[in-house]
Amino acid sequence: MPDSELDNIVGLIESFELAEMTPPDTLQCELRPYQKQALHWMVHVEKGSCLEEAATTLHPCWDAYHFGDKRDHVIYLNAFSGDATTEFPSTLQMARGGILADAMGLGKTIMTIALLLAHTDKGDSSTSSACQAFGECINTSHMRNLSPNYAKRSTNISDTNKLLKFKASLIGGGNLIICPMTLLGQWKAEIETHAKPGSLTIYVHYGQSRPKDAKFLAQHDVVLTTYGVLSSEFSAENSEENGGLYSVRWFRIVLDEAHTIKSSKSQVSMAAAALAADRRWCLTGTPIQNNLEDIYSLLRFLRIEPWGNWGLWHKLIQKPYEEGDERGLKLVQSILRSIMLRRTKSSTDKEGRPILVLPPADIQVIYCEMTAAEKDFYEALFKRSKVKFDQFVEQGRVLHNYASILELLLRLRQCCDHPFLVMSRGDTQEFSDLNKLAKRFLRGGKDAVGGEANVVPSKEYIKEVVKEMQKGEEGECPICLEAFEDAVLTPCAHRLCRECLLSSWRSAIAGLCPVCRNIINRQDLITAPTESRFQIDIEKNWVESSKVSILLQELENLRTSGSKSIVFSQWTAFLDLLQIPLSRRNLTFVRLDGTLNQNQREKVITQFTEDHDILVLLISLKAGGVGINLTAACNAFILDPWWNPAVEEQAVMRIHRIGQTKTVSIKRFIVKGTVEERMEAVQARKQRMISGALTDQEVRTARLEELKMLFT
């Protein structure tokens, strides 16, 4: 979602409305005025100072229970979630925290480090003690003091008692920061650089051998971990068995790139919401990526009651908003007003000056002309694809075959980059490896999927998977929800993009299947549908496509200046191809994609930043679109358009941010007269859907119209 549209929904805070706060002397860098304002706002949100209007009104989801000889002890119980606290819950929020939603590149990391230094503590034990006392008395004579509505509005008393005792057993800890794996090293380096030595102790909770002892975790001021680790330590079925991160009541939890939890039914979203903490923060420049429902997951994590309850959210906000009723939008705006701070690079201070002055960014679209040979290849592929699409239209089954149509479009889009990419996925391949795979599966038993502890897929399911692949039905990846890119088949018979799968693991050697949670070894993955990504010897038969030729000319022109460039593509197979001409022309490069583990990624970023001889970074959009700081470069090339333009924007903001001292050049490549050119029109239509301007029926109709437009 573009910044302008996002700002219309969530609103902007004018800088001149905010006071500034001097950071503690343990912060070893100078904050800009707007960053001091953020620090002041965050500190006061945590204190509850900004909620004075609601401070004396008990939240409707909470009940107060008095106990003790003189009934001078009070505990508040949430009838929806079962949470308990001794702190008075206001009508606006329970947990103290909010959403720092400043646009990308404004320095949310350094603002958060300033907050850590301004107030760092171990989790408050008073709540735990009171909860335990309440749990012990809840089945005694004090029951007569409870509200008569309690039994109707909560879970049974023994369950509540059990929950309270469990929460009372949690050990008070410091700050937990959760981020994508790519950013783990960057967070550690930023804290070590900007916090005075000795002011914060840091522990990186990552890797197969990480300790899960609560006392060990709780003794550090800052614990850094990843969303992958968080998910792996969470069990939705039995919350009492959750150990590690879940055995600590954190003083503060920070979600970096918090839109990672936007899908409310995902494992990672539920895992984040289940953590115990006194203060909670979401850092994201894109709090809404696809639709308004993204906000629901953030509010659930933040414990902004009652909006963590899906029934109420859907009834009062989501449904009215989708139906064009302004009351839904106004309600969500009123909720966000007190808990969200958002400024953009164009925001101004009280003198009317921009809050952040960066070197200019020149954004261009380069329209490429196909060669005659490429055009013949593309048109032949397009005609074949259009015949299949027209058949679906004639049968009235377009949306029923949505995944198959995405596969047709994928091949057309890849053809615009280089015909070799399409040839790597040819329909005429022999599926001998699939037949071997099917036999291995169908043997059954522990050899089939790597162990007796794993769930063995049924023979019928295996036959269906292999049959679909032999028919060329690619489907879509369950992680990125795009047509497969370099698909692999797991021993449990699930297909995923190779990069999506490997980047979801916390280890480069093994991890869990995101679909069924079986343990998978990397060596057991099988490339689908062939052992080779390309049908031909690409080195021996190398030919430049028009898009590659223009890119190489651009890079050659930059060689003499020594300025660094980042080349983005969403297909790792295209990065494979680009390595050939770059090597032949002695254009030194490094590469970052989802197959690299944390240490390898850090090494690549360091090499690119510090080695003056390395001029090019090849990077996949999935691996490089999040959080990392690449201001060593001042040129970005987006080789293929993405369905969601916000993803492209996130990628280029890696270089146009604080620390950039040179004019930034951003060039997007579009091949004329192809599906790429028509995708630009589709992106504009998608924004209307994202903004809620269309009803559900109109969305279905619009989707059909978009597909017809792409196959025109």
Q: Can you offer a commentary on this structure?
A:
With 712 residues, this protein is an alpha/beta fold. The chain has four domains: 3-55 and 90-124 and 170-341, Rossmann fold (3-Layer(aba) Sandwich), CATH 3.40.50.10810; 374-418; 432-471 and 473-527, 2-Layer Sandwich (Herpes Virus-1), CATH 3.30.40.10; 546-690, 3-Layer(aba) Sandwich (Rossmann fold). Helices cover 41% and strands 15% of the residues. It is built from 27 helices and 21 strands. A seven-stranded parallel sheet has the order 6-7-5-8-9-4-10. The protein has a six-stranded parallel sheet with strand order 11-21-20-17-19-18, sandwiched between helices. α8 links the parallel β6 (202-204) and β7.
Helix proportion range: 40-55%
Task: Using the coordinates above, name the CATH class of the largest domain.
Answer: Alpha Beta
Mean pLDDT over the full residue set: 77
CATH superfamily of the largest domain: Tandem AAA-ATPase domain
Subunit arrangement of the protein = single chain
What class, by secondary structure content? alpha/beta
* Estimated radius of gyration: 27 Å
- Which strand order spans the largest sheet, edge to edge or round the barrel? 6-7-5-8-9-4-10
Low-confidence stretches: 125-157, 425-455, 689-696
Bulk shape = globular
Q: Examine the secondary-structure arrangement and name the CATH architecture of the largest domain.
A: 3-Layer(aba) Sandwich
Strand content: 5-15%
Ends distance = 26 Å
Can you tell me the CATH topology of the largest domain?
Rossmann fold
**Major sheet:** 7 strands, parallel
Question: What's the helix count?
Answer: 27
Total number of strands: 21
Family: Belongs to the SNF2/RAD54 helicase family. RAD16 subfamily.
GO molecular function, one term: zinc ion binding
Domain Helicase ATP-binding: 89-305
Protein name: SWI/SNF-related matrix-associated actin-dependent regulator of chromatin subfamily A member 3-like 2
